[in-house]
């Protein structure tokens, strides 16, 4: 897990929602910005992987951005934004393991057929016979 928080830049804005009169005058919403291609913490392969997996969150200039306005204080929103962006990037770096195709064994096939036969017999026995 890489901590690249030194490369992040922040913008603040007025957030919507709870806060009463405070919401109209204090900029508590935080938008965190990170330029993926200029990062020194990741190599080129990792940058390509991040850009591919997070292409919906990265704008045309190659900047990954995330807005947080959950808390009523700017500091808490800033800390949450840092945690979330680090979590998102670290999840993007995980390469899933390839699935190896397998076939069911003979016993599994036989067990399935036996179960089907038992159910079929049970339903057959429910029928009204003349």
Automatic annotation (TrEMBL):
<dbReference type="InterPro" id="IPR000352">
    <property type="entry name" value="Pep_chain_release_fac_I"/>
</dbReference>
<feature type="compositionally biased region" description="Polar residues">
    <location>
        <begin position="10"/>
        <end position="21"/>
    </location>
</feature>
<feature type="region of interest" description="Disordered">
    <location>
        <begin position="1"/>
        <end position="21"/>
    </location>
</feature>
<protein>
    <submittedName>
        <fullName>Peptide chain release factor 1</fullName>
    </submittedName>
</protein>
<dbReference type="GO" id="GO:0003747">
    <property type="term" value="F:translation release factor activity"/>
</dbReference>
<feature type="compositionally biased region" description="Basic and acidic residues">
    <location>
        <begin position="111"/>
        <end position="124"/>
    </location>
</feature>
<feature type="region of interest" description="Disordered">
    <location>
        <begin position="99"/>
        <end position="130"/>
    </location>
</feature>
<dbReference type="GO" id="GO:0072344">
    <property type="term" value="P:rescue of stalled ribosome"/>
</dbReference>
<dbReference type="Pfam" id="PF00472">
    <property type="entry name" value="RF-1"/>
</dbReference>
<dbReference type="GO" id="GO:0043022">
    <property type="term" value="F:ribosome binding"/>
</dbReference>
<feature type="compositionally biased region" description="Basic residues">
    <location>
        <begin position="99"/>
        <end position="110"/>
    </location>
</feature>
<dbReference type="GO" id="GO:0004045">
    <property type="term" value="F:peptidyl-tRNA hydrolase activity"/>
</dbReference>
<feature type="domain" description="Prokaryotic-type class I peptide chain release factors">
    <location>
        <begin position="14"/>
        <end position="30"/>
    </location>
</feature>
